[in-house]
Specification:
With 301 residues, this protein is an alpha+beta fold. The protein has three domains: 39-83, Membrane-bound Lytic Murein Transglycosylase D, Chain A (Roll); 85-131, Roll (Membrane-bound Lytic Murein Transglycosylase D, Chain A); 151-292, Alpha-Beta Complex (endopeptidase fold (from Nostoc punctiforme)), CATH 3.90.1720.10. Helices cover 33% and strands 16% of the residues. Strand 5 and strand 6 (197-198) form a beta hairpin. The strands form four sheets. The chain has a six-stranded antiparallel beta sheet with strand order 7-12-8-9-10-11. Strands 1-2 form a two-stranded antiparallel sheet.
Length: 301
């Protein structure tokens, strides 16, 4: 009877030990998956957003959200993300800081990771980022209603802006400025291109298209339009491009207003706002370059 009891106790112990080992392996595998590089796929001839999503167990909407795409139109050679983006916490990272870095709300970041509001991040902690990133950080000052005058914002007058933005091939004057300022306060909507809702590249299209300036839909593609502009030659109306994700590529665009300010569709505050440029630590450290597109001969891509 004693031997039977001993064997029974050993059997229970072995079972528990096996369970713990397997549990540890599952946790390790889960952690490894969470911290592994984002899975990507290069679009091949014949691929569609639907076929790629189906092969990889995703919905089309989720595939589009992972890749910040407004439509299922894809091109051969395009690299698509198949997992939600993640961030591995570094020393000094905070939830608020990351929400500003990636242009998402604190609540959205907490909800994506089921974290309490008073969470303190640990170095190496892997966070899932809310999908659909195509814009940047907080504004410096919220615009008032009715629309403020240029002087109220510390910006050049319309006449000065017109003079600074005109060229031999562009006679639109300050029309772009009026278009841009009329959109202040327009709600931010990922993939939006109208006054009902707009994202950063959609905002640029709303401003420039009525002037006959043809631009691609995405900010990364808009960064190849027109001609490059040196920082010391910036003029009102030039497009400013930023890397708000830290991957070394364009993820946000705005329009330079002069006087160290620019206007952009800002996802953090959920609307079109005016921000400071070089004097703002966030924007200045994420600035990638500028392009001049308001010249008919140079606006094609």
């Amino acid at each position: 009877m004693t031997q039977v009891a001993a064997r029974f106790r050993f059997s229970i112990f072995a079972s528990l030990l096996t369970t713990l080992i397997l549990s540890g392996e599952v946790k390790a595998q889960t952690a490894q998956l969470a911290s592994s590089p984002e899975a990507t796929l290069t679009v091949q001839r014949g691929d569609t957003a639907y076929s790629i999503a189906r092969r990889n167990g995703l919905t089309v909407d989720l595939l589009l959200a992972y890749n910040n795409l407004a439509s299922p139109d894809i091109e051969v050679g395009q690299v698509l993300r198949l997992r939600p983006p993640t961030h591995t916490a570094q020393r000094g990272d905070t939830i608020y800081g990351l929400s500003r870095m990636y242009g998402v709300s604190v609540d959205a970041l907490l909800a994506a990771n089921t974290l309490p509001r008073d969470t303190k991040l640990e170095v190496g902690q892997v966070l899932q980022l809310p999908v659909g990133l195509d814009a940047a950080a907080p504004m410096i000052a919220a615009p008032a209603a009715p629309l403020p005058s240029p002087s109220a914002l510390g910006l050049p007058s319309l006449a000065t802006v017109a003079q600074g933005s005109q060229s031999e091939t562009d006679s639109s004057g300050a029309s772009w400025y009026q278009n841009a300022m009329s959109l202040l306060g327009t709600p931010y909507v990922l993939g939006g291109t109208s006054r009902k809702g707009i994202d950063c590249s959609g905002f640029v299209l709303q401003v420039m298209t009525p002037l006959g300036v043809k631009l691609p839909r995405r900010s990364a593609d808009q960064a190849r339009a027109g001609v490059s502009v040196d920082d010391d030659d910036l003029r009102p109306g030039d497009l400013l491009f930023f890397d708000t994700v830290g991957a070394g590529s364009v993820t946000h665009v705005g329009i330079y207003l002069g006087n160290d300010s620019f206007i952009n569709a800002n996802s953090y505050y959920g609307k079109v706002v005016v921000d400071k440029f070089k004097s703002d630590k966030y924007w200045s450290t994420r600035y990638l370059g500028a392009r001049r597109v308001m010249m008919d001969a140079l606006a094609n891509y």
